[in-house]
Amino acid sequence: MQIIIDLINTILDTIWDVLPIALIIFGFQIFVLRKAIPNLKKIVSGFILVLLGLGFFLEGLEAALFPLGKLMAQQLTDPSFISAGDVEAVLGWWDYKFVYLFAFAIGFSTTIAEPSLLAVAIKANQVSAGSIGVWGLRIAVALGVAIGIALGAYRIVTGTPLYWYIITGYIFVVIQTIYAPRMIIALAYDSGGVTTSTVTVPLVAALGLGLSSTVPGRSPLLDGFGLIAFASLFPIMSVMAYAQLSEWVAKRNNST
Amino acid sequence: MKSVRAVIASLMDSVRDLLPIILVIGFFQLVVLQQPIPNFGEILIGILFVVIGLTLFVHGLNLGLFPIGETMAYSFASKGSIFWLLVFAFALGFGTTVAEPALIAVANEAAIVAASGQMIEDSEQARDSYAFGLRITVAISVGFAIVLGVFRIIKGWPIQYLIIVGYIGVVIMTVFAPKEIIGIAYDSGGVTTSTITVPLVTALGVGLASSIKGRNPMIDGFGLIAFASLTPMIFVMGYGMVV
Fold first, then answer.
1. A256 to chain B nearest CA, in Å?
2. CB distance from A61 to chain B under 8 Å?
3. Does B195 touch chain A (CB under 8 A)?
4. B170 and B207 in contact (C-beta within 8 Å)?
5. Interface pTM, i.e. ipTM
6. Calpha distance B27→A220 (Å, rounded)
7. Do A117 and A138 meet the contact criterion of CB atoms below 8 Å apart?
8. Chain B contacts of A239, Cβ < 8 Å?
9. Tens digit of pLDDT for each residue in B117-161?
10. Most exposed of A110, B21, B108, B131 (fewest Cβ within 10 Å)?
11. For chain A, which residues make up each domain, given as ranges?
12. pTM, two decimal places
């Protein structure tokens, strides 16, 4: 069974990734804090579960979703699909409509499955005593990533410079920060960083690469980057918007 | 019987988390591209693996990563040594980033861009040393970010001022950095924080904010990840200017 061998290899790789973290934690615990770790057995079994979980998770993605998703990104950005067989046609930005739709959908759905976002949502729910919903936060972040990646795909198609979008985004974030409820601000900034990890990055990278190598005049080396940056910027705005919206709804319900 | 039901319930949660991806890929394959799904059996096994993996991960999170992050935050706070806390913060940021597979991939990619843009010599040796330097740069910047973030929690500074200063830094660096590096620099902010680092660092921040008097875990506890995704952008553009 090839998949079992692959699974074991993936788990071994994950152990290598976790090893430095475990060394730092236990090193500081033993040499600096000099305290026994409470519930050591529970914590070690938690680490083992995380290791096994990530191993299964990554191997499953590698076996099932990544090959199909990457192939799909290539096929959707293929000029012969976009021009519907008409080789002579000059393509406008709207001809890539299915690419934007795919970018939006894949951005949203991979973010919902992203384990690190789930972790932050669970923590935020605990800390806020339930006033921030796990699903509310995840959907807000996923919408942000979806919009970000769709816009990023549009940027690659049109070839406009990346920094215009990012700097405009920054200005929006600063203005929103002034009006957003204070308790959401730090969490919103964090959600920009947690969105893009194991599930999103490989599929989004394949999309950027496919798009920048088939759109005339783009180079994968110069234009293929930047989708991740979009995916980390837009959730900041969408999470603050989510908090502003819930505050507004709560106010309106109180006044009536 | 009750525990069996709990396992099934958490497996169902994972299925629900995964359902959107399955629907999206299924829709595009069958409706837009109008092609059959290849290797159907293999894909089913893969999806089963993902569901099992996600369920185990969430359980391990609550058993291991969250408690250890918070326990260490409490121990450092009660020990009262800011110096060692900051050393720990740096080690955690540096150590978890330097070996991050996503970062290694981006660094190698960046070296190819730099070589094709004639910023460095196009030889394997030059590319390797460029990629290695970039990795160290990003790892140092993440270490610095966690130190800064922990220091902010201790002091209780509002996060937005620091972030705005960071944004201004990014904008200024963008003006001066070589054009080829900008895309990579912007992306490097997103790839640094791995699936294991995020829960650990979040628990550390929240634990610190709840054990220091006068700090609110919601307002002060979050924000470490935000610094860790902002500083690499500035540092990588700086690296592009120096090398």
1. 29
2. yes
3. yes
4. no
5. 0.87
6. 27
7. yes
8. none
9. 777 888 888 889 999 999 999 999 999 999 999 999 999 999 999
10. B108
11. 1-60, 77-255
12. 0.89
